[in-house]
Design goal:
The chain is α+β, with helices and mostly antiparallel strands. It has helices spanning about 25-30, 35-45, 45-60, 65-75, 85-90, and strands at about 1-10, 10-20, 20-25.
Length: about 110
């Protein structure tokens, strides 16, 4: 994967190229906001977000697991609903979001 950074209003945001597509780091984008990564978790819990991601995958990913998506879409928006990027990818075969773990510092 190729990485580069762009500056958005003083915040360095990583852009990763994977399979000739650019992916913008949501984690970098929210670093300047109160709650940071919790904002991403809240965004993924939103039913409209899940529906948008599902439609995008259906249009762009022939291997998307629509049956799993239907179950996730039905649960989305409930107080007990939780969805991580990794869970989304593992359950549905999604390609529109990528989970990249941060490297641990060497000790």
């Amino acid at each position: 994967m190729k990485k580069r950074a762009i500056n958005v209003k003083g915040v360095s945001v990583t852009v990763v190229e994977r399979h000739e597509q650019d992916y913008i780091s949501l984690t970098d984008m929210v670093q300047g906001f109160d709650g940071g990564s919790a904002l991403i978790e809240q965004w993924l819990r939103n039913k409209d977000t899940v529906l948008f991601l599902g439609v995008w995958e259906q249009l762009n990913n022939a291997a998307f697991n629509s049956l799993e998506f239907e179950g996730i879409g039905n649960a989305a928006g409930r107080n007990s609903f939780y969805l991580s990027v990794k869970k989304w990818i593992d359950a549905t075969g999604a390609i529109g979001l990528v989970a990249v773990g941060k490297k641990k510092p060497k000790t």
